Every structure is written in C-alpha cells, then in structure tokens.
Amino acid sequence: IERLDQDVNGVFTRVIYRRPNGTKFMESVLSGGTSPQYTTRTEIYYKEDGVTIVETRTYQQYYNSNGEWVKEVQIA
Q1: Residue 43 burial (CB < 10 Å; 0-12/13-18/19+)?
Q2: If DSSP states are collapsed to H, E and C, what string results for 1-66?
Q3: How far is CA 75 from CA 4, 41, 72, in A?
Q4: Are 54 and 45 in contact (CB under 8 A)?
Q5: Assessment of whether the complete model's pTM goes beyond 0.85
Q6: Considering only CA atoms, which of 22, 74, 24 is closest in space to residue 47?
Q7: Residues 25-74 pLDDT 10s
Q8: Do residues 22 and 40 make contact, with C-beta atoms less than 8 angstroms apart?
C-alpha cells in the first residue's frame, strides 16, 4: 500500500493498492470539500497491466454535526 499526497491535516488523499507482482490494482482518491472533510472518494480499479482502467466507483462522504465522518454511500 502506498499512501500519497498528504494534506495539511495529515490526511493522505491518495492510496494505491498493488498486486504481489507490483502492478496497480486499485487507487482510492479523496476530493471535494475541504480537509479533513472531503466530500467524495473515488476508487479506480485496474487490469493486470496496472494501467488500463476497468471500473470506477464513486462514493459520497457524510459527516455528523461535529464534523466526524459517519458513512459513505456509492453514487449511482
């Protein structure tokens, strides 16, 4: 796992998951809103070559009145 693009609040906004052979399997990216309350998380899945995208999933992030993350819901 590679954690990248750490913001001013210490949140890594990109996380890359790799297969045992080193190719990229999935990348998770936080975006929208302001740190640390990002509004969107996107998962990008890759073929065995680690380059070709096979699927993208997007999730809306939800926070309570204290600003704490409570859940995410996949956007259709």
Answers
A1: middle
A2: CEEEEECCCCCEEEEEEECCCCCEEEEEEEECCECCECCEEEEEEECCCCCCEEEEEEEEEEECCC
A3: 24, 10, 9
A4: yes
A5: yes
A6: 24
A7: 999 999 999 999 999 999 999 999 999 999 999 999 999 999 999 999 99
A8: no
Give the containing element (helix H, strand E) for 72: strand 69-74
Alpha-carbon separation of residue 29 from 33, 39, 63, 65, 69 (angstroms):
13, 11, 18, 24, 16
Query: How far is the C-alpha of 76 from the C-alpha of 73, rounded, in Å?
Result: 9
Residue type, 28: S
CA 49 to chain centroid = 20
